[in-house]
Amino acid sequence: MEHDELVARINEYSRIARERELTPEETLERESLRREYIGRVKGNLRSSLEGIERKK
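RE: above sequence
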């Protein structure tokens, strides 16, 4: 799933949750999408930090 699509799905579940209670299946999918998003952010940050060289 592309980044924009992932964010759009998470946002859609957030919008739905404001209107009504999510079903157990929707809640599980939203949590799964959130974990994937957080994992990607952490991976990107880790890559960026590993690419930094310390000046002496």
